[in-house]
Amino acid sequence: MDRAAEDLTARARIRDAAITLFGERGIEGASIRDIAAEAGVSSGLVRHHFGSKEALRDACDRYAKERMIQIGAELTQDGDLTGLDPLALHPIAFPLQLYLVRSMMDGSETATALFLEGVDAVEAWAAGYGITPKDPRGYAAALAAIKLSVLILRDQVSKALGEDITTPAGYNRIGQALMEVFTIPLLTPEQVEKIRKQEK
Amino acid sequence: MDRAAEDLTARARIRDAAITLFGERGIEGASIRDIAAEAGVSSGLVRHHFGSKEALRDACDRYAKERMIQIGAELTQDGDLTGLDPLALHPIAFPLQLYLVRSMMDGSETATALFLEGVDAVEAWAAGYGITPKDPRGYAAALAAIKLSVLILRDQVSKALGEDITTPAGYNRIGQALMEVFTIPLLTPEQVEKIRKQEK
DNA sequence: GGCTTGACTACACGATCGTGTAGTAGTTTG
DNA sequence: CAAACTACTACACGATCGTGTAGTCAAGCC
């Protein structure tokens, strides 16, 4: 438990600790006792405030989703991002993203719904942007999954880069590498057609 | 335990069952008793053959990695793929891939090493192909992670598509959607430069 | 025939998990 | 002032986990 957490209520500390530990180790990998220790309370208090592990997870799901939508809205509503420094945002948004991805992989309905909403948004954006893939839905789903891939494989990607991508600097680096993937055409349409026939 | 498995030795059945269940549920999510039941043997026999859960996992890591390298070699060594029907290959290679990715995410050294080798291969391929990103290593790491993303998020992607991508047909569909991502430039270099400055 | 060896099972162990229960201290409310 | 409520802790419960131990059974070897 760090300094800033001391001012929070016990309930908020438990929720934040749960988001951190669930995100790092997965839902099964983090026990209620671990979370209680991280929050500096007894394990019974976790149960007192949230009822059960599944209910705690639900609360984390809804909180993390709401916060991420809120952050996204603040980022897109006005061009000038005064007060919203991307560097200052990272320590807040990154754990939330880690948690949501992990919870989603462990079967969360709420987090999966957020993913599906993301696919819808990407599909609509691509259509309005004049991008016309042969499979618009598949294209959008692939893009949405790609956005999360470096988050999920952060340990492996960090090892490949020799740089921790959970830091703001490292995250920025892999983000720009991802943009290069979207910028440089890897295959010509002719090559795609050739592979497509080969697989038939 | 299906029909074809009946001919295998108990040791092979245990290993195959472990790869399947570990791949589906993760290492912690699949117990030795589950694996034994899936293989149709007692839990004691798992211990008899492999010693411990960690040793079983090691054996699965090495077997899956070796098999995947072997399959990859057979696919690339000669142009004519007679005898290696991609459709027939899917039921064999897909569970192996699922297992390796899952084991990697759960901290396997062997599987992570395979990922790093993949990044090396992508980087060398891109260089020989005349692709010159500003961050070649980051570019290769991003591409390698992307290749695995739809595998990891298979449940979510399947839900977004309304089609199970673990089937050969579904896997083919998302594979082609991924190719479209690599074919259609999403951003112009000018846009990339603009975003790059904005993030500074 | 006796003996070893390997495949295999049954069962018990300690640890850890989520959960349930009982109780304390402090504050609020009538 | 007493009752009620809230935040919080300590402790015990059954289940499940990986692991350890003992023993059965069949095949191969002397």
Automatic annotation (TrEMBL), chains A, B:
Ranges for the HTH tetR-type domain? Answer: 8-68
Please list the residue ranges the record marks as binding DNA: 31-50
Q: Which GO terms describe its molecular function?
A: carbon-nitrogen ligase activity, with glutamine as amido-N-donor; DNA-binding transcription factor activity; transcription cis-regulatory region binding
Q: Which UniProt keywords apply?
A: DNA-binding
Ranges that cross the membrane: none
Q: What PANTHER family does the annotation carry?
A: HTH-TYPE TRANSCRIPTIONAL DUAL REGULATOR CECR, HTH-TYPE TRANSCRIPTIONAL REGULATOR RUTR
Name of the featured protein = TetR family transcriptional regulator
Q: What is the lineage of its organism?
A: Bacteria, Bacillati, Actinomycetota, Actinomycetes, Propionibacteriales
